[in-house]
Specification:
The complex is a heterodimer of chains A (344) and B (429).
Chain A lengths: L1 H11 L2 H25 L1 H32 L6 H18 L10 H30 L7 H23 L4 E2 L8 E3 L5 E3 H23 L1 H11 L1 H6 L4 H27 L1 E2 L3 H16 L4 H21 L5 H15 L13
Antiparallel strand pairs in A: 1-4, 2-3
Helix pairs in contact in A: 2-3, 3-7, 3-10, 3-11, 3-12, 4-5, 4-6, 4-10, 4-11, 5-10, 7-8, 7-10, 8-10, 11-12, 12-13
Chain B lengths: L1 H18 L14 E9 L6 H18 L1 E2 L2 E9 L1 E2 L2 E2 L1 H13 L3 E5 L4 H13 L3 E4 L11 E3 L1 H4 L4 E2 L19 E3 L4 H15 L4 E6 L3 H16 L3 E7 L10 H9 L4 E5 L6 H6 L11 E3 L6 H7 L6 E5 L11 H10 L10 H21 L7 H8 L4 E3 L2 E3 L11 E7 L6 E8 L2
Parallel strand pairs in B: 1-3, 1-6, 6-7, 7-10, 11-12, 11-13, 13-14, 14-15
Antiparallel strand pairs in B: 2-3, 4-5, 8-9, 15-18, 16-17, 18-19
Helix pairs in contact in B: 2-12, 3-4, 6-7, 12-13
Classes of the chains: A mainly alpha (344), B alpha/beta (429).
Chain lengths: 344, 429
């Protein structure tokens, strides 16, 4: 029995297992969703778009979790709050330009938003480097548990600071993107906002992929993730590489925060708690340490939540998400696309 | 067994204070016999500031008007039950324990939230201490039935069936000490239902809630009554942890697809109720109404709804003092004493009447006790005899402690800059 169990696990761990999982998941989705989709295709398409847009935001947060875990095996619980902090930093910056809900959309708005995004990514990334330097680096060789608890503590510190800064209520993010909808054949339509969210996430994930694949620093990050000591012996500056990882993770989360703000127009000091939990789940689901896996996991969770709220019981949405996570982990502990973590 | 001891303490205190001489005051020239405290327990910090502070202001305004009663000086002993900016049942329980331990406290005004009341009532009940809430609306605090057949048309749903303790479970002495001037949530949902069907002319509505006792309760009673009104609830969802949900659009899209003309959301602004309203943009027609209970009749709700604030309707389970003839002089006196707009809230006048009703009961209890400091039980006995006409109209109490005044106010946002305004008062039949 146990042997058979282990055998199944081993058989499912390779590439064949990946395809088997994708196949089974697709099959279940088809059985559940095809009748609904056929009943009202434009509606189905709309729910799909919502799921993709929400998933894209989770994906941007998940990247930070997965990169940090990949390189120092830390579940950085403060990462969700770094996401919220991104939006909170952007709100006063956008405010400088006098943006309100009534601001008409123009090329100038796009330029300002891009500028604000870059500045916010830099500030948020800088703060995350500071957190790493002060809270995590001194504990790098301490037991993992100490580091984990420190990360939980940092999460509360950040939430507390944001609570003191902006209060307990939702903070409004100016609604400057156009509400225009693009009509598609067959009666469906897609909002410009949805397109902006999905496209920016795709661009950012692709850039990150290119960066880790091609750039010198990206290669150093992958090398450090594989074997820290060996990388050091090869002349890689470990501290700088890890700091860069924290910077990039936070910059992506900050972009996610701004996108969230532009998309939903309301953000609260503790938004990062659940968003972070979902994103962490996405990272584990896709295979922690694996960038494509995290992006895939984010999209998956967004879609499950969206379909569950539209077609099934909203009260059971979280149950679905975590039941699927447990099932995946039972049969394939390395996640959907396989873990990429330091070798022991 | 501490009861006689407490009385002795009071007597000693009264004699000592009386010996201190005549300190004057507005009590008709009688000597100062000591202090009677009115405990106030409300959520007053963080996100709850806008709930607690205007309500506290109502109590303080009433006490400052009266100042002394039969030679006793009245004072307000105020405690905040919010922890980290959110109302907290355990903190509330600690607060009322403090009031129970202070023999000068003859009555408690509060709490604001029904779940806090559930933690507090057993404590005040053991001490026979009168508690009167300006804002609690959960029906299971006073009644055994959660959704009565008379409202829904189907069989009674009991509190136990709804997962809430029955009133008897909260009252270890077997007698009641708890009163409220707000009517109950089982009336809030139906009142909005009648308004939606008769005034807004809606026949198909989507209903959701934040899955908390308050939110789900008003959503359930709204749904039940709307069906009875011949309307159709085309989509029904509950969102646990709604404060952490950022996207409600799939639900809204599904609601429109099912033919909904408007949305009823049972929940509070802190659970993102008004974010739901904001996300109706582009999914529902601009004129589609958004409805809810008193949890959305707040300034924060208007901020969250942003460009979609207009067209929101919310019930408050009390009479709007603004619509009561004879209340206007008190309201304008309050507003000249407290000129800031944030000083006045939906529960300021209910809290004012709570204080006046409690003071009236204390007054009668003192007189019945030959001018001496009455016991808590004596004050409690007088509460049941309440026959008071104030800024909410006429208030009396039934044997459960519920007000006999069953009027519910519908507030609406007609202009985002002026905010919530009283639309009409609905009395359930």
């Amino acid at each position: 029995m146990v042997a058979a169990w282990k055998g199944t696990r081993t058989a499912l761990s390779g590439t064949a297992g990946t395809w088997l999982f994708v196949g089974v998941a697709t099959l279940i989705l088809l059985i559940l969703l095809v009748p609904k989709a056929v009943g009202n295709p434009p509606f189905f398409f709309q729910i799909l778009v919502y799921g993709l847009a929400d998933g894209a935001i989770y994906a941007l947060i998940a990247l930070g979790y997965t990169m940090v875990y990949g390189i120092i095996e830390l579940i950085n619980f403060a990462h969700g709050d770094i996401f919220t902090l991104g939006a909170f930093i952007a709100i006063p910056l956008v405010g400088i330009f006098g943006f309100t809900d009534a601001t008409p959309f123009s090329l100038g708005v796009v330029v300002v938003l891009l500028g604000v995004t870059v500045v916010t990514m830099a500030i948020d990334g800088g703060i995350n480097i500071l957190i790493e330097r002060l809270a995590y680096r001194p504990l790098r060789n301490a037991p993992r548990l100490a580091l984990l608890i420190t990360a939980v503590g940092m999460s509360f510190v950040l939430e507390g600071a944001m609570y003191l800064w902006r209060g307990a209520n939702n903070v409004h993010f100016p609604d400057v993107l156009p509400e225009t909808r693009i009509n598609l054949p067959g009666g469906a339509s897609i909002g410009v906002k949805d397109v902006v969210v999905i496209v920016s996430a795709v661009v950012l994930v692709s850039l990150l992929n290119l960066f880790t694949d091609r750039s010198k620093l990206g290669k150093a990050m992958r090398a450090t993730a594989q074997d820290r000591e060996a990388s050091q012996l090869m002349g890689i500056n470990i501290n700088r590489t890890i700091a860069a990882t924290f910077f990039i993770g936070a910059a992506l989360a900050a972009a996610g925060g701004i996108i969230f703000g532009l998309y939903f127009n309301n953000i609260r000091f503790d938004e990062g708690f659940t968003a972070g939990l979902y994103a962490f789940t996405a990272a584990v689901f896709g295979g922690i340490g694996n960038i494509q896996g995290a992006a895939l996991g984010g999209l998956f969770i967004g879609l499950v939540a969206s379909f569950s709220n539209a077609y099934f019981q909203a009260a059971l949405t979280d149950v679905w998400i975590f039941a699927i996570l447990i099932l995946v982990l039972v049969f394939r502990p390395t996640g959907l696309l396989g873990m990429q973590v330091p070798e022991k | 067994m501490r009861f006689p001891k407490m009385l002795a303490g009071v007597a000693v205190a009264s004699v000592l204070l009386a010996a201190c001489g005549n300190s004057g005051g507005g009590g008709g020239g009688s000597s100062n016999k000591g202090t009677i405290k009115i405990g106030v327990d409300l959520p007053e910090s963080g996100a709850e500031t806008s709930n607690g502070i205007p309500t506290l202001n109502g109590v303080e305004f009433a006490v400052n008007q009266v100042k002394t009663v039969d030679g006793f000086t009245l004072s307000v002993d105020n405690l905040d039950d919010a922890v980290n900016g959110v109302h907290d049942p355990q903190k509330g329980a600690q607060n009322v324990q403090q009031f129970v331990d202070d023999t000068k406290v003859l009555g408690v005004i509060g709490p604001f939230n029904s779940n806090v009341a559930r933690a507090e009532i057993p404590i005040t009940n053991r001490a026979h201490l009168v508690q009167i809430s300006p804002a609690n609306t959960n029906q299971c605090l006073t009644k055994t039935v959660y959704i009565p057949q008379s409202l829904s048309g189907v069989a009674d749903v009991t509190c136990q069936a709804a997962g809430l303790p029955a009133p008897a479970d909260l009252r270890p002495t077997g007698t009641n000490n708890y009163f409220r001037v707000a009517t109950t949530d089982d009336n809030q949902g139906p009142a909005m239902s009648d308004y939606a069907y008769n005034t807004l002319k809606l026949t198909k509505v989507a209903v959701a809630s934040d899955a908390e006792a308050y939110g789900k309760g008003i959503a359930d009673t709204f749904s039940a009554r709307f069906t009875k009104d011949n309307g159709t609830v085309v989509k029904r969802q509950d969102f646990p942890n709604a404060s952490h949900i950022s996207d409600f659009r799939s639900f809204l899209r599904a609601a429109v697809a099912a033919g909904a003309q408007g949305v009823y959301f049972g929940g509070t602004d802190s659970n993102n109720a008004c974010v739901v309203r904001n996300q109706m943009t582009g999914i529902f027609p601009d004129a589609a109404p958004f409805m809810g209970g008193d949890g959305i009749v707040t300034g924060q709700c208007i901020k969250d709804a942003a460009s979609r604030a207009v067209g929101m309707y919310g019930t408050v389970a009390t009479v709007a003092a603004e619509k009561v003839p004879g209340a206007s002089s008190t309201i304008s006196a309050f507003k000249s004493a407290h000129p800031n707009a944030s000083d006045y809230g939906a529960y300021t006048m209910p809290a004012y009447d709570c204080a006046k009703i409690l003071i009236a009961a204390i007054d009668k209890a003192i007189k019945a006790n030959n001018g001496n400091m009455p016991t808590r039980q004596q004050v409690l006995d007088q509460m049941y005899k309440t026959d008071y006409t104030g800024v909410l109209g006429h208030t009396g109490f039934d044997s459960n402690g519920d007000t006999t005044n069953k009027a519910i106010t519908v507030y609406a946002v007609k202009d985002a800059t002026t905010g919530w305004e009283v639309d009409t008062v609905v009395t359930l039949t």
